[in-house]
Amino acid sequence: MTRTLAEAAAALADPDTFVDGPPWEFFAALRESDPVAWTAEPEPNQGFWTVTRHADIVAVSRDWETFTSNRGVSLEELDDDQLEHRTSMIDTDPPAHTAMRKILAGQFTPRVINGYESFLRGVVARTMDNALARTEFEFVEQVSSEIPVRVLSRMLSVPDTDHAKLTSWGDRLVGNTDPEFADALHGSEESEQYRLLPFRSPAALEVFEYGRALQAERRA
Fold first, then answer.
1. What DSSP state is assigned to residue 144?
2. What is the pLDDT of residues 82-116, one digit of tens each?
3. Cα gap 119→110, rounded to integer Å
4. pTM
5. Cis (ω within 30 of 0) for the bond into 23?
6. Which of 39-48, 56-65, 168-177 has the lowest mean pLDDT?
7. What residue spans of the chain are helical by DSSP H?
8. b or e along 116-142 (b: 16 or more beta carbons within 10 Å of the residue's beta carbon)?
9. 8 A C-beta contact, residue 70 and residue 93
10. What is the C-alpha to C-alpha distance for residues 48 and 24, in angstroms, rounded to an integer?
């Protein structure tokens, strides 16, 4: 490995590091010599820890009293105002997290999940058939982004005709650092007006509007 351990730890937070596949040599070096590595960041950020050993990751994930999720679970460091507006289920600790999980638990029992088998097999088969019918296809666009959104649409009872909307919203929200997808690049001056929205993205406003419309329709 040509990089220092500190450089390797910092690189694991950069999606470009994974363009050609997982950097196994970085993981191996860090696990061997610096399994809990600190990466400093310029102010106002405080920096972050990179944990690479399985046992340590398990310990961190189970010890919510020491390693809280209440301050957010991404590298973006949120102030109290942002946390108040942007907190979701994954940004919570027990007992709030436990209470929300109980609401959803009934939808993830083995019996319920097994009931999706024929649907899932059909989605995968149709997706692969459509992709392989092309002379060339882009795997992420035609396969790996297609299947999860189809499944999510089914679980949320979203009309199949709205599949393209959900895919676009997901790309624009999660791709907030990618000029190809972002409406306002994360960290830009423009994104400041959206700082209280999920992912600092105006696409969240469209998702909220869509959700409210579905809510009204189902309550009618």
1. I
2. 989 998 999 999 999 999 999 999 999 999 999 99
3. 15
4. 0.80
5. no
6. 39-48
7. 5-11, 24-33, 54-62, 80-86, 96-105, 110-114, 117-132, 139, 146-155, 163-174, 203-219
8. eeeeeeebeeebeeebeeeeeeeeeeb
9. yes
10. 21
